């Protein structure tokens, strides 16, 4: 089967997939494989997905969304290749990618095609560019808020932060509107603007887009979605008690994390014996920042000679990670 091509004409592509990873892979495939500059092409890609949270390339998923809520409610978490903030997708919103030669990159012109309640992100390459944006038509705003609600304390991050803003469905302004009608309206306007005749309805697969499965696999893996997270630190203080449960002092635990792996840990004051703390550091450094660290901590505990104090620190470390990862 011949791979997909729009030859020498501007085009509109409507994905038939509702899988966030397939659609992000399609966007990346078009951006990477099309020579938009030499052919002076402009392409509009449209799609909508099942429930998903999509974070920007340089963001921290644990800060931007409730990972635990998303996992419990079958909401995919994906990291896109373009920058910008975090958005919630479901069948009630519509996604656009305006792919153009970089010299023709014009966000204002693109936004004139669509309406209110929009969040945008973009990716500029040496020759090509794309402007990615989302329109809320009739999104489930309850799940949107629950998915994106975070109130983390004690976390400092170098990641790009989303700008929180109130959003509104177009359905509230125009009760008769739906996703299909928005697709038709934007398609018709784009056709007039760019001299496009047809809308290509495509299913992202290996036959039409050779290499797309590899892109999808890369976007879907933990190493990209979580492991690409910029450096951050998390600090939390805990109250220590004596045997009668009387408060005696506090200990502050700080962990530095980079690419979703623990880089270092410190205790203030240092309440562990030197050999126990060194063993702790050796045990958890370069370990993924996930609750699965429990196994590594259990091995550390096995060799500790101060079981009570080490058990306390173990429980505090797990509490920190649970707070961030929930």
Automatic annotation (TrEMBL):
<protein>
    <submittedName>
        <fullName>Lipoyltransferase 1, mitochondrial</fullName>
    </submittedName>
</protein>
<dbReference type="GO" id="GO:0009249">
    <property type="term" value="P:protein lipoylation"/>
</dbReference>
<dbReference type="InterPro" id="IPR045864">
    <property type="entry name" value="aa-tRNA-synth_II/BPL/LPL"/>
</dbReference>
<feature type="domain" description="BPL/LPL catalytic">
    <location>
        <begin position="38"/>
        <end position="223"/>
    </location>
</feature>
<comment type="pathway">
    <text>Protein modification; protein lipoylation via exogenous pathway; protein N(6)-(lipoyl)lysine from lipoate: step 2/2.</text>
</comment>
<dbReference type="Pfam" id="PF21948">
    <property type="entry name" value="LplA-B_cat"/>
</dbReference>
<dbReference type="InterPro" id="IPR004143">
    <property type="entry name" value="BPL_LPL_catalytic"/>
</dbReference>
<dbReference type="GO" id="GO:0005739">
    <property type="term" value="C:mitochondrion"/>
</dbReference>
<dbReference type="GO" id="GO:0017118">
    <property type="term" value="F:lipoyltransferase activity"/>
</dbReference>
<comment type="similarity">
    <text>Belongs to the LplA family.</text>
</comment>
<dbReference type="InterPro" id="IPR004562">
    <property type="entry name" value="LipoylTrfase_LipoateP_Ligase"/>
</dbReference>
